[in-house]
Structures are given as structure tokens and as C-alpha cells.
Amino acid sequence: MELVDELRQMFQVSIKLVLKVIQIPRSTYYYAKEHRGRESNDAQIIQAIDEIRQQDPKYTRKYGYRRITEALRNNYGFKINHKRVLRIMREQNWLCQAYNRQKRKYNSYKGTVGVIAPNRFKRRFKTDRPYQKLVIDVSEFRYGNKSQSERVYLEPVLDLYNGEVLAFNISDHPTVDFALKPLKEALENLPSLGYRTTVHTDQGFQYQNRRWRNMLKTHRVFQSMSRKATCLDNAAMESFFHIMKVEVMDEQFKTKNELIRAMTEWIDFYNHRRIKTKLDGKSPVKYRELAIQKAA
User: Fold this and answer.
1) What does the alpha-carbon distance between residue 178 and residue 106 come to, in Å, rounded to a whole number?
2) Rounded CA separation 155/206 (Å)
3) How far lies 272's CA from each of 69, 146, 151, 179, in Å?
4) Which of 6, 111, 125, 275 is most deeply packed, by most CB within 10 A?
5) pLDDT digits over 164-206, tens only?
């Protein structure tokens, strides 16, 4: 493109004539002119992306291009399009493929062994109020040898307002007592609200239990349940488990303690440091704190 500009200045002719003589399409010329110097600008972006990926290497290296774009905008001041970030990450071979793998799902449904609550959410997972809509579910995580693997169970309480894990429990057995512990912790720590909270689960035997229903009634909390064999009714929780298993279970844990430590560390990272695009590039806790400051 430098040649085109030199010929234009030398002979004092129009760009159209120069392009016609040297047989270069107008679109090619203007595209190259607009993207001139892109390589030097890319170098700065590549350095910034590499720094982001090194912040929590075990997890941030699994960031996708949209999350990286948010970090570049919010933390580095780049005014950049996500398509450009995608191109750069492809060129650097930094795109994570782990999210394409299917993960094992745990099913706690044992038929109608208690009371089935109505589906109050009906897939309406969005809310602009903290602690208004909570989702809870159980999933299994495996450790040990592949031929003789053992498992532990995780039950988190997730606030749909910002995706924050309000409480969780990890145990060898998914009993009713196991399920009640994080529910009790979350409900007892709820601030004074001008509206009632709804807790949504699947139809697992723990959530049909009388003790579970009584605890919700004690705290004046509505109960909601997905319909049987309809995973989309609890899609927010399914999405959380998928993300967690991708980012935690990319290695084989030999012992239970190793696995539980990795799970606990990841939940802390998820709450306090893992940025989310739908939270304007902020972590769940940071988003909630800023919202409270604005409301004060």
C-alpha cells in the first residue's frame, strides 16, 4: 500500500487511476490501509492476553475469547472487538477445547418419594434482585484410578442474580442431611429483604423430603421444582457444573483430599476472581458489592 501512495504523490493522480494501472481492487487497498500497523498493535494485545492468562494459570488459561475481551476492556483499557481477540487467540493457539467434552451427570431422582412442588421459575432464570432466586443441585466428582474410581458429591447454593455460590457442601454420600447443610447456611445468612426468596431444584429425593420442605417453610421461602426429565428447567445449575468440571477435572486426582481441596479453591476463585461477561466483566462477589454501593 506504500507503493500506491508513493505513485499517487509522484504523479499527482487519483487513487482510482493508480489502482487501475497496477491492477489492485479498491476494496483490497482500503482494507490494507485501514489495517496498516495491525501487527505492532497485536503485539501489545498478545502481551496483555498472556498476562491475563497467567493471573490464575490453572483457570484463566481456559478463558474464552469473550471473557478475555472483557478483561482487556476493563483492566487494560483496550477498545477492542471480540472478533479481533478471537483471531489473535486462534493464531496463538490459546483457544480452550475442553468445553466440547461431555461430562458425567448425577441423577438423584428415585421416583415420587415425597411431595413434588410446582415449577415457579418456568425457565425464567434472570432477576435484578439478589437472593430472590436460588438454585440448588447435586453433582458427583470422581477421584482415584479410572478402573477403581471413588466419588464425592457437591451441592452448591447458587444465586441467579450474580451466579455467586452462597454456600456448598461436599460429602461421600448425597443424603438428606448432606443436602440440608448448605441450604440452612444460605437461608440463615440471607439479609432482610422486601421480597420472598424462591429455591429451585430438580425432583431429587432430597428435595422431596419433608425435612427439606419444613426448612423452607420455616424461613418463609417458596419451593420450586423442575419437571421430570427436563434438564432445561434447571439449566443455570447444569451450566455451573459443566464449567466447574471443565476447569477442575482436567487432571486425575489420586486422593479425596486432593480433589476436595481443588474443588474448594475453584469455588473461591469462581466467586471472587472469575470474571463473567454478563456481569460486565466482573466476578460475582465484585458485581454484588458494586451493586450494593450504588444502591446505598
Assistant:
1) 15
2) 11
3) 19, 32, 27, 24
4) 275
5) 999 999 999 999 999 999 999 999 999 988 899 999 999 999 9
Given phi > 0 = left and psi -120 to 50 = alpha, else beta, which region is 163? left
Q: Is 201 exposed, middle or buried (0-12, 13-18, 19+ CB in 10 A)?
A: buried
Mind giving me the DSSP string for 211-259?
HHHHHHHHTT-EEEEPPTT-GGGGHHHHHHHHHHHHHHTTS---SHHHH
Contact 169, 178 (CB under 8 A): yes
Segment 72-106, tens digit of pLDDT: 998 888 888 899 999 999 988 888 776 655 556 66
What pLDDT sits at residue 6?
62
Q: Is 18 left (phi over 0), alpha (psi -120 to 50) or beta?
A: alpha
Burial 236-247 (b: 16+ CB within 10 A, else e): bbbebbbbbbbb
Nearest to 89 by CA among 48, 33, 31: 48
Cα(175)–Cα(125) distance, integer angstroms: 27
CB 211 within 8 A of CB 217: no
Query: What span, in angstroms and rounded, lies between the C-alpha atoms of 4 and 25?
Result: 12
